[in-house]
Amino acid sequence: MHSFQKYLIIFFISSVNAELITVDGSLDEAAWGNASEINEYFETVPFTLEPARVKTITKIFSNESGIYIGFKNFQENSSMLSNKSMRDEIPNNVDQNGVAIDFDGDRLKAYMFFVTLANIQGDGIRRLGGRPEFDWDGDWEVKTKKYNGYWISEFLIPWNVVLMKNSDEKERTINITTFRYLAVDQSWLNNDKTSGFRVNFLSNLGSIQVNNFSKGKLNYFPYISKTYNSVTGFNEDRVGTEIFFNTGTGKQINLTVNPDFGQAESDEVIVNFTAQETFYSEKRAFFNENQSLFDLSHYDRYRVINTRRIGAQSSYICSDSTNEELCDSTKKTYTDINFALRYTQKNQNGDFGIFVAQESDESFTKGKDFVALRSRNNFGTRSIGYFLTHVEDNFLNNNATVNVVDFTNVKSEKLTLYTDLLSTNKEGINGFGFRSQFIYKPTSLSRRSGSILFFEDSFQLNDFGYLKRNDWFHVGIGSDVTKINYNNSSRIKERKIGTDFNYDSDTSGNSNPIQIRQEYNFLYKNTSSFQASWDLKSSGKDTTITRKNVDFPYVKNKASFSYNLDYESPSYGIWEYDWRIGYETADKYKSWSSEGYQRRYLKVAGSLYPINDFNVSFSARVREEDEWLNWIEGNELAVYDLTQKIISFDMNWFRGRKHEIRLKSQFVALDAKNPKSLITNKSGYLQDYISNVSPFTEGITSFQIRYKYEIVPLSYIYIVYTKGGRIFDDENEKNTSKIFKDPWENPDNEIFSLKFRLKF
Fold it and tell me: To which H or E segment does residue 325 belong?
């Protein structure tokens, strides 16, 4: 029996007699005395399930405003850690409280709300079969306060913070669990003997009955912004708004008109020479709000909707325009959005949603129109859904449509099954895709999983979604087992061993290297961790490097072996560090003058917290590859001696709760020397070739400093300075300092932006 069932009746009674509560970190109102109480917590990271070594008392009740949760966390003041951070970016060296709530009681998703001792909020969504995602920001209240021998966190989670299913019943079933993070020994404590890091987390939430409150919400977020680029001369003033309307009866409308997303965090700089597109997560608040219904994905392999497509750079054909020079000079890396609208409806046994977005037309191009329809019906522990997306490209005069039928079957707390059937049509060409997956947990400390993917060569998902690759057949099987309860003399707190097998090929049967991977994870009692992993790949065929050349569809690969070592230090109060070492080797080719492939990788990173209000972090990464293979064109390739260096530096300063200054910088230097020209024959064998292949260097600089002032919660002033650029040189080799320096001295962009965003 779940511990929450113990206070089921008390929770219901307190929801009837509750009074107005001030969220101030003091549980001194009379209602708290009548609230249900939780005083049993268990260690869940590591997953010992032993009674917690520290005392935690949690009180919970509800009224028409929402759910109130109050934590009283006992510990010595000297062990309390309260380093500040950005919202959702919570470090390991700060104490936390949190609650996870499945408002619909269907175990398909849970919203997670947590706070640090420094009163930094975090929130996210944990979906069935997925990992916790923290891009969503909800409108809820919390306050922490430190006392002698304990600290308190006080939550108010409004009923309208999310869209709940409409119900005419007097009570509704919700699933809920509470947790605490003790930073001094990096352990997680939970009252329901479950953890958000485990696959069966949603199945183990406790169920309770609460009064069925209906509460609507209408919020306006008007904004005004100014953007100026001193390099290009771009100068823009914008006015727009976002509207969020929750009826309180299972219906919600989100609308944005003339949106500006200049406050979005800059993406990590990634240099990608492969045929596979880099996926970037969504950071824009509007597209993360109430997006769970439209989130159908399979790890990093595909997503039916990738909202980063909306507002991405439009197509240009300047050579066909009447003023090619002006067209080239006015190209933008993004596209303005006229509006975006999302309507979501939740009923007792099903959900329905519509999403529409329209991009703006520009002088030398036209924007796209996006439409998505989503429905899902639940039948006990099973659900069936339908997904339709459609994109109209008004510049290229083509369209793309995707249809998906998805099934989910939660057979038990141990076994969950997933199936997706996908079809696409782009310019009259049809394509088919398929996914089948199972996740099985025979015990609380072991897991088995497997998946099959199949995507035809003609399958096209990337107009609105994301697909790692098409023309793809994949079979993956994995398992892991965890050992805990080491004796007192052991330094080890938890050990996890995982094994994965992956087979990939194209749909013609050309087999990529078969991969076997094993991973060993050790968590130590001093809070440090160590990971060792190795990968063994058989010989096979690289079916992506020649970009699906009809006559030369693949390159044959030699078998390879690699290993990686990772270490994370314990927190030393004001600082911590980590490092990674990687090595990979493969046999030399006999068909050309090969010396053999090697890759060496080193990463060193650290963070410094001299005071609670200030922190800096630094990382340096170096990758060296002998015989790095790169595609040129057709069946022509080249190998280089590659050196890539990446330096990142971040700084955050906080002044009270109102002021934030963030500096993010990243510098990338890539040096490809000693090129050798190669060609592949129809059998996939590489051969020496005589062609003019030059060494090249590439440098990328990304720098951003952002000041943020919180007027009131969810109302902000942003002042942002961004500078960055990219150089590519295939004539003269440059040293590292020159590669770093040139994009800074000759940037592609130097942008100043100012934005006011207010909540009404």
Answer: helix 324-329
